[in-house]
Amino acid sequence: MAYTKSSAPAPVRVPTIRNGEDVSPQSSQPGSAAYMPSEASSVFATFTPATESDVSAAIEAALKAKQAWQDTPFVDRAAVFLRAAELVAGKYRFELMAATMLGQGKNAWQAEIDAAAELADFYRFNVSYAEEIYSRQPTLNERGQAGRTDWRPLEGFVYAISPFNFTAIGGNLISGPALLGNVVLWRPSPSNIYASYLVYKILREAGLPPNVIQFINGDAELVTKVALARPELSAINFTGSSDVFRSLYGKIADGVREKKYRDFPSLVAETSGKNFHLVHSSADVSNAVKHTIRASFEYAGQKCSACSRIHIAESRAEQFFSEMKQELSKVEVGAPEDFKPFTGPVINQAAFDKITKAIDESNKDSRLELVVGGKYDGSKGYFIEPTIYSAKEVDHPLFDRELFGPVLVAHIYPDAEFDQILTKIDQQGGGFALTGSIFATDPAAIRKAEVRLRYAAGNFYTNCKTTGAVIGQQSFGGARGSGTNDKAGSANMLMRFTAPRTLKEEYNHLDSVLYPSNA
Question: Region annotation Disordered: residue ranges (predicted)?
């Protein structure tokens, strides 16, 4: 069984890769470890962090590989990722899932929809999106001339930085640019280092040349320092916190001002969210309750699209909270290896400390009423109960604070103040605008919310949860403080990694310098 294979013997070793080969140093040299969030004392994976010279060498190797890779016909590049999709869905499916369960604390369902289904979808759909881009050619050519668009890859390299919470995101951040002929320096999160290594291993087995994607184990600041110092940096493809992206943005801006870069680097990012559910007086309450539990508490609230604030019409509040308590009584929190738990641990000690500190403060806050939860246990793993607070004040700071954990703040609004609550939702949320949802059966209320909350969420849903965008159905991304809204799972995002060139050829001889009006 893949789960057993990934968990024993532990820890697994993530190799240091150079030129596609394992060049890991001897075990006597210092290394780093990734721990299991469900069993915090257990080391799941070990790796040796890259040095500055390692990162520089990786960039050099990628740039040397660039010409041959971009000259490779698109059909051959596409074949690599289509083969990889088959390996993800078949040969490596359960090993990827097991690595995601153990390393990231996901239960079997969440691991399946991430590491198997979504990753394979990214590889397959990106090929289709790339074909769509390449097909965009001039609609008209005058007689005697021909024009076309050359969808070149970027001239330099792409720096990809992926988060801990989705194996598929890392796979997409590197594969989209590479599919278009780019070379990529990839720094995955240490918290999902083994699952990320499996993604790299699969791509190599699928036929990816050894230096097209450089897999780097290392400290984020060190790798970033080296990457951002290179004039060949053409793009950053990032998923993570808004604060980190703002820092990257500022450093790139400084480099542009100093004329450090050959290009103006493209910045592509999907970052944080303080996502909302809105329950209208016409809502199907039972449906809203179930969707809210999934949106707020699956994977311990660690999805960037997770719901963490909710506004409930007063006439529906009693039923909503009653059913919420009833449904949550069925929800088990525990280690993913037990399979039964609906939700598991948060990712690490830092996340656990941040969230539990907020819970301790909230439990003492007279402006908040604890509806359910409020407890946690860090004796073995980083486990936090699904927690809901009802705020007496609509302006409570929890409506703006992103915790990235299983904590939901609720507010009850008078039915007649639907317009006012739409304004408040748009204004609140910590400056983020990633996902949001309305639960209602009144078409006028739904339409009003769609219009009034047009810029409050990049992905807006009706009568369903804020999580679970599916490639090919809902492209994903938000604006404001939630990123550049380039929409992962679309041709739009891939276009950010192209440098289109326009070509024109004339077939006729020019007989005169003068125009007819000069006669």
Answer: 1-35
Between β-strands 459-462 and 407-413, what pairing exists: parallel, antiparallel or unpaired?
unpaired
Q: How far is CA 165 from CA 191, 302, 345, in A?
A: 9, 7, 12
279 membership: H or E segment, kind and range: strand 275-279
Q: Quick check: 48 and 24 in contact, CB under 8 A?
A: yes
Angle at 249 between CA 104 and CA 496, to 5 degrees: 80
Q: Look at residues 260, 188, 189 and name the one whose alpha carbon lies nearest to residue 228.
A: 260
The whole-model pTM stands at 0.96
- Specify the amino acid at residue 115: A
Whole-number pLDDT of residue 1: 42
311 and 276 Cβ atoms separated by less than 8 Å:
yes
Phi-psi category of residue 489: left, alpha or beta, with phi > 0 → left and psi -120 to 50 → alpha = left
Whole-angstrom Cα distance, residue 293 to residue 301?
Answer: 10
Instruction: Tell me the residue type at 210.
Output: P
Rg from Cα positions in the chain = 25
My answer on whether omega of the bond before 9 falls inside 30° of 0, hence cis, is yes
What is the C-alpha separation between 320 and 329, in angstroms, rounded? 14
Which residues are marked as active site? 270
Calculate the CA dihedral of residues 322, 325, 329, 330 and round it to 10 degrees: 70
Give the tens place of pLDDT for each residue, 175-208: 999 999 999 999 999 999 999 999 999 999 999 9
CA distance 470 to 117: 10
Q: Nearest 5°: CA angle at 26, between 229 and 45? A: 75
pLDDT reading at 396 higher than 50:
yes
Distance CA(122)–CA(176), nearest Å, equals: 8
pLDDT band at 444 (very low <50, low <70, confident <90, very high): very high
Amino acid at 269: A
Q: How far apart are CA 435 and CA 439, in angstroms?
A: 14
- DSSP classification of residue 488: B
End-to-end CA distance of the chain: 85
Taking residue 168's Cβ as centre, other Cβ atoms within 10 Å add up to: 27
